[in-house]
Amino acid sequence: MNDDKYKKIVKSIRNFCDERDWSQFHDPKNLAISLNLEASEVLELFQWTLDNKINPEKENEIASELADVLYWLIMLSNHYNIDLLGALEDKMKINAKKYPIKKAKGISKKYTDL
Amino acid sequence: MNDDKYKKIVKSIRNFCDERDWSQFHDPKNLAISLNLEASEVLELFQWTLDNKINPEKENEIASELADVLYWLIMLSNHYNIDLLGALEDKMKINAKKYPIKKAKGISKKYTDL
Amino acid sequence: MNDDKYKKIVKSIRNFCDERDWSQFHDPKNLAISLNLEASEVLELFQWTLDNKINPEKENEIASELADVLYWLIMLSNHYNIDLLGALEDKMKINAKKYPIKKAKGISKKYTDL
Amino acid sequence: MNDDKYKKIVKSIRNFCDERDWSQFHDPKNLAISLNLEASEVLELFQWTLDNKINPEKENEIASELADVLYWLIMLSNHYNIDLLGALEDKMKINAKKYPIKKAKGISKKYTDL
Known about the structure:
The structure is a homotetramer. By secondary structure, chain A is mainly alpha-helical.
């Protein structure tokens, strides 16, 4: 059976780092820091905007910045042998219970305040 | 043709929000803020550790926290109609050029300092 | 009576922005985003270090980066007319109760887990 | 000569940690992580708001959250023997040159784009 696109990319990231002998730097605390730094770069695209939209001069950068966040997310998942997509599927089931449509429709409150 | 696992989850997230009429809150600036808040929760698992490993009492939380980050990453990708996996594939090609194995092997410097 | 150094700097920041007519951009959400972006730049100085120390090539940047965080902290305090030093004094009194020396000595746990 | 309010609080924080023997946990990387986590808690007060104002149910929390950020800022300054207020004074002089009133008035661009 063929790997799907997500599995292929997980493998290619693992190979990329192995070939460069970078695992020595990749203790998980550093991976978590990098994840945060890249998430900040996404946020930076919205700095000083007044309409809650992305800075129009920076709209072409969003795909690349989101990809950077996913990169570190996969690195952390690889480190802990986590099935990231499976974890999100599990989470969506939990969220469906926490936020039943009847209660949560049109409301932005946290489930504990619903 | 069948959707693969990643596409299925992207669709299920879209449905989840549509059913709850949440798109009104999901301006992209708020999505970027949520992405950062969830990335912080990943980092929090490493707070005060001295060995760069995750706090052992919190190791069982990492999969769920990584899933939360992926959730907002997919929400932002959906908002901008970005093919997130494709963007990461593109990025990996760029990274391979920025960090040639010969130059980057065993070195943690940024490509501009290699 | 003369203003002390902290009050002087709070005033000078207010003047700096008034002269540039920047208050129109300084809605508090944007200030909070800038606070986070500057805090990230502090964290970036520690990226990839394995000994928990600052990257030695970047040690001369730390004072400037910390000053940037304080700048946004004062901007937010000015916006809400908060006496920031007074708020920290109040917090220290609360912390002294949350973390009594007897219980907290040599322990890094959160007060709820002490 | 009497210490001013800022110096008093810097000293009281130093004493607070010494009495609890907490310096062992306070390697600077952990301090920088805590600074970021507290900055996130400030940002969280603005999550899901559509008018760029603070969530009104959380307005009474802002002073306390800003104080938490200042706490870690002072901890980092203490660690590196940095005169934080002096560093900000220096920064303000640099900013005055980077953003001359004539050029920067009413414009939110970064100085490199002015």
